[in-house]
Amino acid sequence: MGAGETGSVYKVRRAAHPIKACVTVPGSKSVTNRALFMAAIACGHSVLEGALFSDDSKHFIGSLEALGYNVAVDEVDKKVEIDGLGGKIPNRTGTIDVGSAGTAARFLTAMLALSDGGYTINATPQMQARPMDSLFEALTELGAEFEYLGERGHLPVKVRGRGCHGVPDKNCSPDNAQNTALVDTGTGNVGDKPAVVHIDISRSTQFLSALMMAGVLIPEGLDIKITSEKTDGAYIRITSAMMKAFGCNVEYDGHDYHVGAGQRYNPGKYYIEPDISAACYFWAAAAVTGGSVTVRESRYGMMQGDMKFLDVLKKMGCTVNQTGEGIQVDAPDGGILKPVDVDMNDFSDQSMTLAAIAPFAQGTTRIHNVGHIRLQESDRIEAVLTNLRAMNIECGTFTEDGKEGIYICHGIPQPAHIKTFDDHRMAMAFAVTGLAADGIVIENPMCCRKTFENFFDVLEAVLSKN
User: Which domains does the chain possess?
Assistant: First the structure.
């Protein structure tokens, strides 16, 4: 970090002028980690261009390396090369550490549970606090076995893959470090009836994405029956689109999903989109400072759900245009932002960004259907309310049709220390507030390394040019 850093805090500089900038953001975390998964179980050599190198993606890469995969990393050129083995995991026993990465935790748990080996999965206390019981139950239904090393339904665990059935126990013990000859995974064959699994995705769609992506490891295919009211979502659609790009299809009938039999991911070159979640902080910065920001290489048609935040900014009065360099957001004429009333269930990562800029809108903003964010990196509803109240902004929760939301009233943010709760999105979202208010100080700012390691350096560079 640069000029705004003081020890373990970052003092946000209020923008002296409307921010006008063209910024580069890193590759998408969601796309990077899905691509890493698919490339690892493809059959052959893959090159991932535009990859994100953050704490989350580094834990994913480190876990693949711990499993014996050949992974070559070039952080300068933002490139990862992986030699996939067609669904085989090189080491049939071992230990991985997924850190605080939810995608690594969910996706790799599914991969290992459908393998023919035995493994231990470790995680940080933050990730250990996030419940995974729905996924564990689904994978147990498919034949995997779990031993909980802490709280039931949470990491860390030992997992014995479904492919261990009929294989001597010594070969599937996580405590046996010896690698053995690779055997076919799964318990069925192409032509058999597909395996069936049931999953509740009300708390996280990552559970479904994990089953979809790992489903190709089951030779007879996989029918995924959804037991929750929610059956679809933006990140699920990303998973489906990427599986298709890697050569595998998933059928969705409006309620349930089917992964066809006998499919394999194709190796090759794959380009990773810029992280639209990261882009939103800079577009929001344009909105609150009366400026104009373009994010390089962003474009309409990108598959990330947070693209919907651009529609929110339009409703607030901003102008959004596609330019040759990328999508450009201009603040409203006169700088007056309108309040909005919006369901953000499908792009809830931006509920914090909207909450952070909502005090500048001339009225009350209502964010609907985001109760599930209480179970993410932090209790994000409580964290948002804590920080808004610290700035003397009137806010609270409401329930509509049994679904929890947040309201934020117009007000002038007062100087405050922002508690990040070790949540990267809290740090970055409330830094935007500080661009249009005095005395905003971000505690533990480097928790942003989870997805955007140099966020505050980029922010400083933008401020230095305005």
Answer: 5-26+275-464 (3.65.10.10), 29-167+191-259 (3.65.10.10)
